Amino acid sequence: MPSRNTPQDAAQSLLLPELAQKDAVRLAAVLLPLPLAGPYHYSVPEGLDLAPGDIVEVPLGQRRLIGVVWSLGGEPPQGTKLKSVLGLMPVPPMGEVLRRFVDWVAAYTLSAPGAVLRMALSVPAALEEPKTVTAYLPVEGMDFESLPRLTPARARVLRTLEGMPPLTPAEIAREAGVSAGVVRGLIDARLLQPVELSPRALGGRLDPTFTTPGFSPDQQAAAKLLRRAVAAHAYSATVLDGVTGSGKTEVYLEAVAEVLEGEGQVLVLVPEIALTPQMTERFSRRFGAAPLIWHSELTQAQRRTGWRSVAEGRSRVVVGARSALFLPFADLRLIIVDEEHEASFKQEDGVAYNGRDMAVVRAHLGAIPVVLVSATPSLESVVNADGGRYARVHLPERHGGAELPEISLVDLRADKPERHQFLSTALRDALKETVAAGDQAMLFLNRRGYAPLTLCRACGHRIQCPHCTAWLVEHRFRKRLQCHHCGYSTPLPEHCPSCGEADSLVACGPGVERVAEEVAALLPEARVLEMSSDTMTGPTAIAEAVGRIRRQETDVIIGTQLVAKGHHFPHLTLVGVVDGDVGLGGGDLRAAERTYQMLHQVAGRAGRAHKPGRVLIQTWQADHPVMQALADGERDEFVERELQERQQAGMPPYGRLAALIISGPDADAVDNLCRRIARSAPQIAEVRVLGPAPAPMALLRGRHRRRFLIKAAKGFALQPLLRDWLGALDVPSNVRLQVDIDPYSFL
Ligand code: ADP
Ligand code: ZN
To answer: Do residues 379 and 643 make contact, with C-beta atoms less than 8 angstroms apart?
Structure first.
């Protein structure tokens, strides 16, 4: 048994201070893309020079993970054996602004920093050394003409390649108009020689002088102001508030041009993937090349090259969904949030953040301008502009003298559709006139499928999703009932599942499929296009449909919100809103605001070019302030009234809200945690805790859900209070506690 005080021990302890100095463990705190409390510490091996932001590989348990050096130095944590950083990844380091942004978002949303980092490292494959591409050239110095038995196809390839840069086999086949087999044959015969190339920059170079629009005086003034904001190289926030069709996009492209002239990068956030093909077209027209598109439906290869080209500064303009905020821009100089009022900027799952608000934060951290664009700015932005925190630019008129459409209400109490029909006489007449005149009409209904509810005539049973608090929606084309919340689907039954009666089930209410059926009966000759996420999957299908509409290959478009936003349809002269009341129920804080914004946006599709447009909104609540404001074109008065109500109620944007959502498969466990949360709720005058209450969606995907709503004064720092309160709770593993700061959904 070794004794403790051997001479060797003594010698070693004597040597220790010196050793410690020489071998002072260099420490790196590495943040991992996992929902952990904070960074983990690793030692830095000899010969590896690290700086904050470096992207490194580290061991964790049996795994190897990619993380980011968050800081260097400090004391090694007690009681754990330090592992060592394995190596540095061959990518540019994560910039300081993005790292601060990750920390900021985590602190604000009460998420683990690693969970936020995961959004910034969303493409692990991009971190590897990029694969080279093998391209081919004709073998140098060979006289092809003298080759015996050279087939005409092979000869054509060799002639085509003369003076060309190296091309991939697919490109060669395309250029020479031969099959892939011919190219392969030439490679095998060693008449083409390989060259290894690094992947090319995506797309062409955007040229700020490719075209220059002639602006109206209002547009000119707005463009100048935005250009100045870019040239200032400092944080600023500007609301670009202009009526639909006023040229907002055209104007903000000037700010983009200013950045391109200075060699920086731009991020344009759009609320809907469906809008990206249209953006590609707008950018290409103005700058002669397409921007990089970023959203969740890209292929892995597209994500990999895209991420890398943003990190290396080769992609100068990114148009993307909210997740693009977390891209590792090399030199971001401007952020534009198009349709900034859209609720779809809010992410509900995982890290609950609002892309619009976080865009402002990222601009602030990076000392760059942000532009919030809308025809109906959110009340949050209105209050910020009124208070002088944001600048405001206004475009009051449509471009080229186009008139704003005439909006009228169809009071369904007076003009009631026939039984099992959903279009009033007024709307049917308008449709017939429009189509007869050779113009286009659009019917808007934000309900997918055939009917939102299926009811048994015999027993009154309503068919509900077994996993959610929701009716099943009939999709007649597919002959199925479907849950729009969890994806559950079942064949349309022939008998009532409750009483067993045959042929007793009836469809209640309209969806776009049912309206399409009604239009087909009304106008059998008309070419009808139904657009919803069921018929159009993905941006390409939507772009194709939009092309057909623009080429006037369709007479009547029937669509959900998919068609409502942002599109420019020059031949569209009639917009009919089938059910204007859809969004008004439910007591949601923003129900009125959102309905107004949505219907205003839909109405804005009409009459954008030479022919004047008109809009008919069918409603059972023709006296509702939202309907009155739409009909009278009194946007600002409506906003003013809404703001007064919010102020009186202490609601956002004048007060602060946070929601807690407690959910789990076991209702008792959920209720148990709710009781503990309620018992430990802070007793402070500035904060009101409402709940627990069953969520309106009390069952979702088989999970029982309860909600708390926490209300505080605007200046009150809710996060520290929530962190202390909720951090002290022991949350069982079968229950999830989600925190939603500034909630948009109250389901
Ligand atoms: P908004 O974004 O405000 O809805 P857009 O920028 O889409 O408006 O403009 C509406 C239409 O008018 C587009 O087709 C656009 O190209 C065109 N337009 C706007 N301003 C100009 C201009 N100054 N010169 C030429 N076309 C313009
Ligand atoms: Zn369901």
So the answer is: yes
- Of 399, 403, 597, 601, the one to substitute when testing ligand 1's pocket (max ligand atoms within 8 A of C-beta) is 399
Distance 226 CA to ligand 1 centre (A): 16
The minimum-distance atom of ligand 1 relative to the CA of 566 is 4
Taking the CA of 401 as reference, the closest ligand is 1
User: Which one of 643, 663, 698 terminates a domain?
Assistant: 643
Residues 159 and 266 in one domain: no
Q: Which tens digits make up the pLDDT trace of 495-521?
A: 999 999 999 999 999 999 999 999 999
| 8 A C-beta contact, residue 551 and residue 583 | no
What would the pLDDT profile of 186-214 be if each residue is shown by its tens digit?
999 888 988 877 665 445 689 999 998 89
Q: How far is the CA of 31 from the centre of ligand 1 (A)?
A: 45
pLDDT per residue over 279-334, tens digit each? Answer: 988 999 999 988 999 998 888 888 888 898 999 898 999 999 999 999 999 999 99
Burial 555-581 (b: 16+ CB within 10 A, else e): bbbbbbbbbbbbbbbebbbbbbbbbbb
Atom in ligand 1 nearest the alpha carbon of residue 249? 6
Any idea what the CATH number is for the domain that residue 717 is in?
3.30.70.600
12 and 88 share a domain?
yes
In a domain, 209, yes or no: no
What is the spatial distance between Cα 533 and Cα 524, in angstroms, rounded to a whole number? 25
| CATH code assigned at 47 | 3.40.1440.60
**Ligand 1 atom with minimal separation from the 604 CA:** 4
CATH of the domain at 330: 3.40.50.300
Q: Supply the pLDDT for residue 199.
A: 60
Residue 487 lies in a domain: no
Residue 452 lies in a domain: no
CA–centroid distance, residue 550 to ligand 1 (Å): 15
Q: Which residues pair with 616 in a beta bridge?
A: 408, 576
In a shared domain, residues 262 and 340: yes
Work out whether the CA dihedral 723, 726, 728, 731 comes out positive or negative.
Answer: negative
- DSSP code at position 712: E
The domain boundary residue, chosen from 608, 623, 643 = 643
What residue owns the CA closest to ligand 1's atom 17? 247
Taking the centre of ligand 1 as the mean of its atom positions, its distance from the CA of residue 246, in whole angstroms, is: 6
Task: Give the nearest ligand 1 atom to 243 CA.
Answer: 3
Asked if residue 561 and residue 430 are part of one domain, the reply reads: yes
Query: 62 with 142, same domain?
Result: no
Residues 356, 426: one domain? no
Share above pLDDT 90 across residues of the chain, in percent, rounded to a whole number: 71
Residue 208 lies in a domain: no
Residues 408 and 529 in one domain: yes
Q: Give the nearest ligand 1 atom to 373 CA.
A: 2
Residue 160: its pLDDT value, please? 84
Neighbours of ion ligand 2 (CB under 5 A): 465, 467-468, 483, 485-486, 488
Predicted pLDDT at 27 = 94
d(CA 306, CA 299): 10
Quote the ligand 1 centre to 403 CA distance (angstroms).
13
Q: Is the peptide bond before 194 cis (omega within 30 degrees of 0)?
A: no
- For the segment 336-389, what is each residue's pLDDT rounded down to a tens digit? 999 999 999 999 989 999 999 999 999 999 999 999 999 999 999 999 999 999
CA 583 to centroid of ligand 2, rounded, Å: 20
The pLDDT of residue 17 is above 80: no
Q: Which domain holds residue 82?
A: 7-121
**Number of domains making up the chain:** 5
Cα–Cα distances in angstroms (integers) from residue 191 to residues 157, 161, 196, in the given order: 11, 12, 17
Span from the CA of 375 to the centroid of ligand 1 (angstroms):
13
Band of residue 12 on the pLDDT scale cut at 50, 70, 90: very low
Same domain, 562 and 666: no
Nearest of 591, 595, 588 to residue 561 by alpha carbon: 595
From the CA of 471, which ligand is nearest? 2
Interior/surface letters 161-170, b for 16+ CB within 10 angstroms, e for the rest? beeeebbebe
